[in-house]
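Page header: ASSEMBLY MODEL / two components / 703 residues total.
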Amino acid sequence: MDKRLLLGDEAIALGALNAGLSGVYAYPGTPSTEICEFIQKSAPEVRSRWCTNEKTAMEAALGMSYAGKRALVCMKHVGMNVCADAFVNSAITGVNGGLVVLAADDPSMHSSQNEQDSRFYGKFAMVPVFEPSTQQEAYDMVSEAFDLSERLHLPVLFRVVTRLAHSRAAVVVGDSIPRNELSPASDRGWVLLPAIARRQYVSLIDKQPDILKYNESLTAIECQSGVAKVRTGVIACGIGYNYVKESGADVAILKINRYPLPEAAVKSLALRCERILVVEDGQPVVEQDVKAVLGAGSNVRGRLTGDLPRTGELNPDCVAAALGRKQEKAGSVSEIVAPRPPQLCKGCGHRDVYAALNRVVSEYPGARIFGDIGCYTLGALPPFSALASCVDMGASITMAKGAADAGVSPAIAVIGDSTFTHSGMTGLLDAVNDNSDITVVISDNLTTAMTGGQDSAGTSKFEAICVALGVKPEHVRVVVPLPANMEDISNVIREEIEYKGVSVIIPRRECMQTLKRHRK
Amino acid sequence: MKKDIILCGVGGHGILSIATIIGQAALSAGLHIKQAEVHGMSQRGGDVQSNLRLSTEPIWSDIIPLGQADLIISTEPMEALRYVPYLAPDGVVVTSSLPFVNMPGYPEEDKLQAELSRLPHLVQLDIEKKALELGNLRTANTVLLGAAAPYIDIISREQLREAVKLVFASKGNDIIEANLKCL
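Prediction written out in full:
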């Protein structure tokens, strides 16, 4: 027995390693990145190289599961959108080796563009969903998830939120078990032709009572005062449980760490209380389910009723308030405290890219610059204020294309190197095939910088990729983004804007953060 | 006994290194610990904070409730003020006195000092000057930790010093010695 101070993410990584993991497949994304990084650092024998995007990660993991081995897929919540096709269908094929899909949600959008709740995806795909409350549970439940995955032949969705992923606590670590031997599946269930898929889908439906039975068997109501009847019953999901305990309120608690919701336990809680408060981080998934289970006339409170805030992550204060607890008197922030937004690093190449773009674009009143996801999204803020949009991975190119189709001119896309290989390449092919009049800037800093400097899938391949997709070689231009080259870069941008067709400009200079690290 | 600490400052200034040392000391002391960090977008020169909770009893929430922080340790004076709502009525603020101005609207020095002087217990020091006097500018955060140590009385200074040796073990004896000098 070993006790270690671990981030929630690290506890998950170690839990997976000790559960006989053969491969982790992931694309970096806050707050999930540290899981794959921990495995890369501590277990060279486990397959762990970064994937191009979450879909390629999910499919490769499914392939490893097909071959009989345990695989883990990790991503931030919006990555679930990217891999959804593979994820939903992996519930139909079922799995062979254990398959755990980890989604790290980011309520309050600390580093995200929405606060979608991955538990909806679990419900949608009809697979078991696990949600630990603590770092210790995160460690323990990963191994449980792999076991359940192999027992039910289903992928298990493992949901965490930022405050668990990025919080450290002492974790008691156990021993590791051996990895599975190679034993590829041989049944026809993996070939989702309609006739087979219909049969597989029925089989998935048939497994639902087993999942529910499993969840019910692990659920119990705890009541501090021990009395049979209390005014308030709390359904506390994931880390919501911690805030309820922190409040010290005398309530009956049904702690939820597994979905679908154990309905019998919910009904039994309802019999003991006048009202039920649902405490869940993210969207009101359980609140809606509980209302459906208990029916009209039930007194179910939560985010939908305004007892807890409708948006943003939970905290000990809002949960204590919802439980009617008296709170410490808090001071207020002085009005002299000014906001300090994040910004591009000193000396960052993206700065020179935006300086040049702004200079040239000022000559074209109709110009619009469509942005993408990465450090360079900060170009939307002063002093650059350059971007018209930032939506999802790769959308800069396709939105510029659509806007150009509609008549916006010049239509410019700014995308990072890692984001381009993640989801920009297919959009560029569309633009080439339509001969759209767009100028794409692939701002290449040779890394996935936003998440801390992970390897970027396309490094040293960008010119070849663009030419292979059909961009004319003379319109694939490489520049070095430095203040000294401002004149050259501006001229290149001007020339490519003037060219009526698809052009790609690749400003290339290493990220300041990775440069510092490489020099050490 | 519990000690709730907010560590704050500007992204890139290394507040997590202070958190790591305190966390290691607390682990060795057999205390319960929770330490919530901020990664990602907020690291790029923006405001950053970490909630560090130490206790002899089990800890539930990863984040500190309003009005319950016993101590704020800040690498930047204006950033210390940002977390005042979390400070307990008799809480202590230990902060670097050096403003770091990388955005518009930074308050004037006299207004900043007037606001800081309203805090119940304030320790303010020029950590860079002190670190230079002790021989190494890069140990400024350890100087700050040294100034805060008397208020983290749930662990001893000796336990913090032992933690420094563990945390900087891979960086060699010179770095360890330079940091120990500041603590």
